[in-house]
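User
Please review the sequence:
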Amino acid sequence: MERSKKTNSEYIIDALRSGQNLRSPDITERVSELSGRDMKIQDIASILAKLSNSDKCDLGFLIQKKKTHKGFTYNLVPESFDLEPEHLYDLTRKTGKNRFTLEQAIEDHPEIKKHIKASRLKSPPMRRTSRRGRPPAMAAAARQSRIPKTTAGAELSDQAIKTLFARFLEEVSDQGGLNINLNLNIRFAGFGSE
């Protein structure tokens, strides 16, 4: 189903499909021509920042951003030209019914895999979280069972401590970081009238 009106992101992708290294002013000019509207460079630069960031947008893996003496230039990786424009548009979205995903792009065009971060290629298992962002109690119990247990008074070897610490750090990174809440109580003694 063909939509009649394109978004600014789609016009930017159309401009990048030229294969040239383009700066923000060049892209702004092309988007203005393609859309028939006068575009502001700060609006285009803001959208470009999102599109070229692979943490925020899957298309970011396929956009090369290079620093030059005049500023940054942007272009699509050559392997992405085999993708349909609609597929590139879908890579800018996080949700949507029947949208084309990065996994589908890799499956259909394995040559783009070299541009994808290894951490993104490993699809992490989906976790249910409660309203406060904590994993359910069963998941917490399962994680605790993976931590090696020692008997009271037993000493851990250096290797065992390193393994334990590595597992701890892995769990912390899997959970998205470490939140520390600290309560500090200070009691002064000797300031009475006795």
Observations:
- The chain has eight helices and two strands.
